[in-house]
Specification:
Blueprint (H helix, E strand, L loop, with lengths): L3 H9 L6 H14 L4 H8 L6 H28 L5 H12 L5 H16 L8 H15 L3 E2 L12 H7 L1 E2 L1 H14 L4 E6 L2 E6 L6 E4 L5 E3 L1 H10 L14 H18 L3 H15 L1
Parallel strand pairs: 1-2
Antiparallel strand pairs: 3-4, 4-5, 5-6
Helix pairs in contact: 3-4, 4-5, 4-12, 5-11, 6-9, 11-12
């Protein structure tokens, strides 16, 4: 483990004219791992740093954060039960490293409470869904971000909770997390071009479109939608998907978002995260 003085000495070499020395210094700092991040972040905020050192230090910090995120995502993938909130949080930390799991947890807990106070025993599933819809879309004003659909923020749960705007999959993730706490059988469904929800009632399952304020619809509506797209029906278009598949789809959405913005490096890094989840 390097001492603080050794790390500071290495940082001063980041503007060396010899590219080989710079590469060696970067590799040495990166080899320390995640534990060095708080110190590097403090140093990076030093206003007296040379611009070139500041720029290279920022890149080192990003590289360390990214390697750490890949490792955490790999660990999450390998767990037997995938915590959807944790998966969504990990993806959010790619763009917002200061975002904490606990802060997201607290906000979901508050939304759950807002819904729970309206619940009564023996409500019909349709009425349960109508209550969730009322709280999310009328009371709390969550809505589809149709004006800026390709914004990466639409796929980041922390930003969705802050702005109250999201895309189909992020609004569904929010819906699922609240439904889980209410012990309701509501799950995500991977449809082409749209992510929806299923209320898996033993008597009569039905579907929910969180992107359209929780609109309730039926299997025949999906049949018509699939036919309009010119696709053959597939069971994955009708049945619940897993938290792992949900987070993989979030990554695919972000790849499209960053490509749309021309942010090639971020697009490639998100592709790497998707590969970690797909490996």
């Amino acid at each position: 483990m390097l001492s603080e003085n050794e790390i500071k000495a290495l940082i001063t070499l980041l503007d060396d004219e010899d590219a080989e020395i710079v590469r060696h210094v970067e590799a040495k700092i990166l080899s320390v791992g995640e534990s060095i991040l708080p110190f590097l972040e403090t140093e990076w905020q030093n206003k007296s740093l040379q611009p070139l050192i500041s720029e290279r230090l920022e890149q080192i910090i990003h590289s360390l954060r990214f390697q750490t995120l890949k490792s955490k995502l790999k660990n999450w993938k390998e767990q037997e039960n995938h915590d959807l909130l944790k998966g969504a949080w990990l993806i959010a930390t790619y763009q917002y490293p200061e975002c904490t799991y606990e802060s997201l947890q607290e906000q979901i807990e508050q939304i759950y409470y807002n819904v729970w106070v309206h619940f009564r025993d023996n409500l019909h599933p349709y009425d349960q869904v109508k209550i969730i819809n009322y709280v999310l879309f009328d009371e709390m004003k969550f809505s589809a971000n149709t004006q800026n659909f390709h914004s990466p923020a639409n796929s980041m749960l922390n930003r969705v909770l802050e702005t109250r705007k999201g895309n189909p999959i992020s609004l569904c993730i929010l819906y699922i997390l609240v439904a889980q706490k209410l012990n309701l059988p509501i799950y995500g469904v991977n449809m082409p071009n749209l992510f929806i929800l299923i209320y898996q009632s033993p008597e009569r399952p039905f579907y929910i479109n969180a992107f359209n304020r929780g609109l309730i619809f039926t299997k025949s509506d999906i049949d018509n939608y699939i036919a309009q797209l010119g696709l053959s029906p597939h069971e994955s278009f009708y049945n619940p998907t897993t938290p792992l598949e949900i987070i993989k789809r979030v990554c695919r959405n972000l790849i499209v978002s960053y490509e749309h913005l021309g942010e090639t490096e971020k697009m490639q890094e998100m592709q790497e995260l998707l590969e970690v989840l797909s490996d």
